[in-house]
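Bumping with the actual sequence this time:
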Amino acid sequence: MDRLISLFKGKCPSCYKGEPFQDKGNIFTLRFPKMNKTCPVCNHKFEKEVGFFFGAMYVSYGLNVAEGMAVYVLARLIYFDDPFDPRLLFFIIGLMVLLWFVNFRVARLIWMYMFTSRKVTS
């Protein structure tokens, strides 16, 4: 349970205390979040090998599909009567663009947590 909580808090997958990201990025200036090379607390290296985070793109794709489906269902239940209303498509695409930077961070965190075990400290 601690692992899941630290994932949602955005902490290091090894010590659950350090910050993997230096900043959260900014959608208005189109600046992506910048990652630390190593954990400031436990010195865990986040990128295990060159191209390690290419797999995070698949996680990001899955997040986008899940978010799009959830928005579609909620929008249909709350607001839209016609399933083929073009405004619905623009609504879903707009939300995906707004969540772009959040998905970037979350996908990388999930990918790191999938391939990192916790260091036992005494």
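The tokens above came from a reply further down the thread. The chain has a mean pLDDT of 87.
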